[in-house]
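so im writing up the methods section and need the Cysteine-rich repeat secretory protein 41 record in one place, dumping it here so i stop losing it
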Amino acid sequence: MSSVFGSVHILAMIAIQLLLTHSVSSLNLTNAYLHHKCSNTQGKYKQGSAFEKNLNLVLSTITSIGNFRDGFRYTEEGEDPNNVFVMFQCRGDSYWSKCPPCISTAVSGLRRRCPRNKGAIIWYDQCLLKISSVASFNKIDYENDFYLSNPNNMSDRGLFNKETSALLEKLAYKASDRNNLDGKQLVLYAAGEKRIGTKKVYAMVQCTKDLIFTKCFECLEGILRKFPQCCDGKRGGRVFGTSCNFRYELYPFLRNYSNSTMRAPY
Ligand SMILES: *[C@@H]1O[C@H](CO)[C@@H](O)[C@H](O)[C@H]1NC(C)=O
Ligand SMILES: *[C@@H]1O[C@H](CO)[C@@H](O)[C@H](O)[C@H]1NC(C)=O
Ligand SMILES: *[C@@H]1O[C@H](CO)[C@@H](O)[C@H](O)[C@H]1NC(C)=O
Ligand SMILES: *[C@@H]1O[C@H](CO)[C@@H](O)[C@H](O)[C@H]1NC(C)=O
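--- predicted struct ---
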């Protein structure tokens, strides 16, 4: 299939304000808008159409029904050819009651930025929301990657790249480990930290929970290959797809980091 949304690479500059507003010592839990894509190929729906009705129904109920223990939902509303697929995934530290506020923000953000689009994705710090007329369960989306990075460089670029990549790689293994379960469900998320010289790097990786563990690993390996483009020597960086993403910073940006990763020797 050809690109549904087209691919995009955002230059570092966009992230400057976002990344420079943090200090090492304070945990500021932001939920900044990051990016969106309106699908051109899926077209627009008409006012009063069955698609609109289905979309309105699913978006009006999405934050009020069900539980948010895994911060994820993939749901379908209506019947072919007017069915709507909606997926959201909250960040791994933003489940339960932390999740619905981000989704509400994302719903209004998506409606404002992609009015009447049948397909659209919006990214925030703490969640992702996607609507589509095309099913995507357990399919890696390779078409909508983008990255954000802090324009400032580390002095020891080589060491920093090597050690940060190694941390992310380790987290990718952990996130996609089939034995890394929350009850019976795959966790598909991992966070950790690591000392590099005098600095400490904080990092996370995550997949959307429609993926099976092998696909999660495949997705993460795909975006980790973009580390050189995104993140070469940068003091902070993130690569996003729709199906997975990673982030690292020199300050803590999550509500908590897992103990096992923190204690692991490097
Ligand atoms: C963190 O957030 C607090 C409250 O919103 C703000 O006063 C403070 O300046 C922020 N710190 C940084 C480093 O942005
Ligand atoms: C973060 O901490 C809370 C409460 O201690 C816990 O319920 C939650 O599972 C933790 N999240 C992660 C990702 O470890
Ligand atoms: C970081 O390094 C790159 C590549 O060497 C350079 O183009 C860029 O200007 C540097 N950024 C800063 C803020 O010095
Ligand atoms: C994580 O580490 C903290 C501090 O070392 C400890 O108090 C806490 O019980 C640990 N949590 C788990 C789930 O092991």
